[in-house]
Amino acid sequence: MERDRETGTAGSPIRDRYTVDDILSPRSVAVVGASEDLTKFGGRILKSLVQHGFGGAIFPINRARQSLLGIQCYSSIAAVPAPPDVAVVAVPPDAVIDTIAALAAVHTGAVIVITAGFSDAGPAGARRESQMLAAARTAGMRIIGPNCLGLISPANNLVLCASPALFVPQLPQGALGLVSQSGAVMATIFDRAMARGVGFSHCFSIGNQADMELCDFVDFLIADPRTRVICTYLEGVKHPDRFLQTAQSAYRAGKPWLIVKAGRTASGAAAAFSHTASLAGSYEAFAAACRECGVLIMDDPDAMILLAAALSHDPRRSLGAVSVVTTSGGSGALTVDRLSDAGVPLVEFTDATTDALRDLYPPNLAGANPVDMGAALGGLATGVETQTMDAVMRDGRTGLVLAPITTAPDITKICENLVAGAQRATAAGYSTPYIVIMQPGRAGDQAREVLRAARSLYSDSLDEAIRALAAWQRLSRLRLLPEALKPAVLPARPAVEALDGAVDEAAAKRLLSSYGIPVNPGEVARDADDAERIAAGLRGPFVLKIVSPEIVHKSDVGGVVLGLQTAEDVRDAAADMTRTIERRVPGATITGYFVQEMRAGKLELFIGARRDPQFGAIILVGAGGILVELIRDVAVARAPLDTATAHLLLDELAIARLLHGYRGAALDAGAVADAVSRTSWLVHDLGDRFEELDINPVLVGDPHESVVAVDARLRLSSPGAGETRTMRSSL
Architecture of domain 5-256 in CATH? Predict the structure, then answer.
């Protein structure tokens, strides 16, 4: 395609900023560091480029050779006869900046930098990456990488990748798009998928994302008619706001976006950062952002590709119920157990399906799901597989057929018959997806060839298939969340001008109360006598808590006393507490005693919030009191959220059944959802000053008793500090 030129600010002609589409359709490619040595990146890149039929001009750059693979070499970039549209750079780190400058000087459109040792290698490498980027931007040249493995585009017959997995006669084409921060993971996924006959439209390894980043490639895949499903291996998001916009675009375009995210744990996050200098951020915040934008998170690349391949055959986001056809009753029982564990329902066959199976199976098995083909009246490998598969796929209740195949005398014939039955149903207009589970080892290799030739989906692992189906179930439930509208009854902004750092419980509760979140009445006393006075004006029984900036976990040091019956009891408890604190926390500053009315409830919840450096304030709700850390039953969402979304959040909890009346009357779930929503608006309105909020416990009672927050901790940054933090995170 012809690409116009424009004049840069310095008066030199530069190319228009290249898009991903431009990079995938180059008229010429330069390989800097080209070689015939397949142990070198430049050797493997050149071989793959030639082997897979690139039709444009190839410019190998190698000053020591006249030709490579029969192609004329050039001693330098300046010696190339025409500006290359795309260049691939595989030279040592110290030579990259000069190479980029030379490519910019001849107006190269885009560069793929394979070389590592930039922001992935510490501060010195990060400075080198900045210099490289500055050199490219003088000419508007785009960069993929550095620290990547290149790209693979079977749809365009273009391979600019250094993986030896590509040394094959032909690359299978398919409807899956893949973007991976790790080049090795991209190549491994491609290789394993290719072994099963699963093809891709385009695959991109993006490395450090110095210039072109994740969303550049996903946006391309959303618009690409040859791509139906988008797969990603991700370590860190570079531009969170753009990520959210791209995710919503993928959902609206009807293209499922599946992500395997590294950095779920602290160790994984550290490993991700050392690999590509990507800030993993809070996994919980990332997961919440994905959920509200319709993106599916998975934890296994193989299961991701299996699900993506199934979705590419059937673009429906909803899985529905599953029919199981198997060669073994034992395998069928194991499969059904695993499906039940994953929450995937089984089909109850229609009468028509039962009638179709009645002549094939004993009376007690006709219409049973799973269908044990090994118990068929005529035996296996007699065509019963064809008739069974045809009948089950025609059942209107079947969302997917799962076919676990065990070792048998004629596995190849069994698989041929299964495929024939699927093809018969498809030809009749019943395009129900199916996945074969090939459980034999080497005994099933020829049968696998049959499945690959028929482009039938199969897996060698029941676990992998169950992971894929469980993820499909989650995908079925994903929806774009509407924008939360702030209730008019809430304040325009919270009054926190005088607050800074760790905010004491009394001040935190005043903020909660200003947003309509119920709290138990109380007041801070100066001393024991003042505590008695305050208690006399409240309704007993009472709770007494120490107020000290040095004491966070008050109950651990004797700083909380419950069940005080009279004002005199409160006075005596305050005096005793003073002596206890002086003994257990010598030197602690006691600023007062918080006297509160004691409340009771039937369930303790926790409502909290944190500021994520990438996705802003997130809300957490779960089992409260001592159960917070014991069972870790927590659901997470981004703030703010309305009460309807808060109800969805509560329904994710294991203790949700207690709210809805498990073995007793229902509790006030509506009041809890209201408190969660109001809390989300409070932390949202605090803006960049918000750091952390814990409300624990929140006591929940019957509908007429509502909820009450009986303890709260809040941390704010200093005025202006949030603005500095935002500026630094954008650098």
Answer: 3-Layer(aba) Sandwich (3.40)
